[in-house]
Design brief:
12 strands; Methyltransf_25; globular; Rossmann fold; 253 residues; Methyltransferase domain-containing protein; SAM-dependent_MTases_sf
Length: 253
């Protein structure tokens, strides 16, 4: 049995555990597979100026953005994720940094900083979420934008609660075991991949927040909401939306 676990959950635990299957598993999800719409909106809002992705992973978004000639940087706490990005980035288009996005971000300044597909929730300490948004504010240009994509907890039909669910892949069965702590918003999980060659444990955690809670945290660190859509195609956000793409700008005195 291969155990991709650590004695204590660290900022790199998720990335290191899922790096070898991330592109295969997650591109099956509609929100993740919408690369074209995501890249189009970010490139438009950046106006061709510097872009930074938080949780850049294997380069799913950063690489096509950089291929458009936009100066693109990415931060990730997982060396395993960044190894895969580097292998794909044969032209060296993306500047990568191995770092915890709650502790350090490159100086910039950046016209656009973005954090896609629930990646912000991978910061599983409330203080780390606060620290990250302060760093974001400090690294934006005066007219810069921070874009955050996440699900809406109250409307999201796939929100894990407690229990076991299974799904069948081409050559494996994956069991997902989850425990949710309603009082804190923390969800702890373990993906157990069962193959003929053995069993692999892939731990994960997320600390979820509703859109209005994210707005409050952002405001505490000098960021104001300027737009919110349901998706990267800028569909209207409504009370029944299960995802949001939120755009924040620096608060100026």
């Amino acid at each position: 049995m291969v155990q991709l676990n650590t004695p204590s959950y660290q900022s790199f635990t998720y990335g290191d555990a899922f790096a070898d299957v991330y592109d295969d598993w997650y591109t099956r999800i509609a929100e993740v597979s919408n690369v074209e719409g995501t890249v189009a909106l970010i490139s438009n809002l950046s106006e061709g100026l510097d872009v930074l992705e938080l949780g850049v992973g294997t380069g799913r978004l950063a690489l096509p953005i950089a291929a458009m000639g936009i100066p693109t940087s990415g931060v990730d706490s997982s060396s395993e994720m960044l190894k895969r990005l580097t292998a794909r980035d044969t032209s060296g288009l993306v500047t990568t940094h191995l770092a915890d996005m709650a502790s350090w971000l490159p100086a910039g300044p950046f016209k656009v900083i973005f954090c896609a597909y629930n990646t912000f929730f991978n910061l599983v300490d409330a203080d780390d979420q606060e620290k990250c948004l302060q760093l974001v504010r400090d690294r934006l240009t005066p007219d810069g934008l921070f874009i955050l994509e996440a699900f809406v907890p109250s409307n999201y039909p796939l929100l894990p609660t407690r229990g076991v669910e299974s799904r069948h892949m081409t050559d494996a069965t994956v069991l997902n075991i989850t425990i949710r702590e309603p009082s804190t918003g923390l969800i702890r999980g373990q993906s157990i991949e069962i193959k003929e060659t053995g069993v692999t444990l892939r731990p994960w955690r997320i600390l979820i927040k509703a859109p209005d809670e994210l707005d409050q945290v952002a405001a505490r660190h000098g960021l104001k909401l300027v737009n919110r859509w349901q998706d990267w195609h800028q569909s209207p956000f409504t009370s029944s939306s299960d995802h949001h793409v939120s755009v924040y700008a620096p608060i100026t005195v």
